[in-house]
Amino acid sequence: AMEAALQRHRARYKSPGGPPWRETYRRRCLERLRSSRAKLLERYRRAGDGARPGPAPGALLVQEVMEQEWRVLRDSLPGPRGQEPLEQMLEDPDELAVLEEIQQELILQEQLVIEEYERSLRFDEECLNAMLEGLDATDRIICPVCRKNNLTVKTHTVCCQCGLYISTQDMTERKLRSLLESTVTEHSQRCFHSPEFTVTSGMEEETSLLMSCPV
After folding, report:
1. What is the pLDDT of residue 76?
2. Residue 11 contacts by C-beta under 8 Å, 6 or more apart in sequence?
3. Which regions of the chain are under pLDDT 70?
């Protein structure tokens, strides 16, 4: 539904007429909003007070983006119009309508980013549950590499049918589960992308379990 609303907004900008600065201003606002994705998500996380965010709040960056881009645009406008602040343009009904259209499109775009972030959080939670809570009757741990088989955890080794084999010291299933959970949780607090696990080793190093992220 939100994507359809965006399409309707974009269609209106293809119609003839309207102030000549309209499309340039709209495009620059969208570009600035997209480049501020990290800032937007940080504000959204703070709005949740450290807890899981609820429904998408009101616009977090839209007004700031519009004001910043208007300052850039007005410097390029000829004559006295180039010195007017954004709020003075609201006196012109046609230009007011244009600004409201741009504002609504930016709000929809912002909400799409937040919805994508929320979906990613849910995906991370599902992966974490599958890895840490998908246990069998013997309380075994699902392998973080293949996510199919149970790990065999012994005092000096951790191994899996997929080929994972790591030397350890005084390892237990409870200790390993705690290490995995704390590492994944710490990552999810800073990044909304899902990490991946692989087994790595160097020429002079013992085999290790490596968590990596595409971001």
Report:
1. 72
2. none
3. 1-19, 48-58, 77-92, 130-139, 202-204
| CA neighbours closer than 13 Å in the CB half-sphere of residue 125 | 7
- Domain range summary for the chain, segments of one domain joined by +: 105-137, 152-212
**DSSP track, 163-178:** S-EEE-SS--HHHHHH
Q: Which two tokens stand for residue 209?
A: 């379990």
Cβ-contact 23, 88 below 8 angstroms = no
Q: What is the C-alpha to C-alpha distance for residues 51 and 9, in angstroms, rounded to an integer?
A: 34
Q: Are 66 and 22 in contact (CB under 8 A)?
A: no
Question: pLDDT digit string (tens) for 78-137?
Answer: 655 555 556 555 566 777 788 888 889 999 989 998 888 888 888 877 777 766 655 444
Counting beta carbons within 10 angstroms of the beta carbon of residue 152, is it exposed (0 to 12), middle (13 to 18) or buried (19 or more)?
A: middle
pTM of the complete model: 0.47
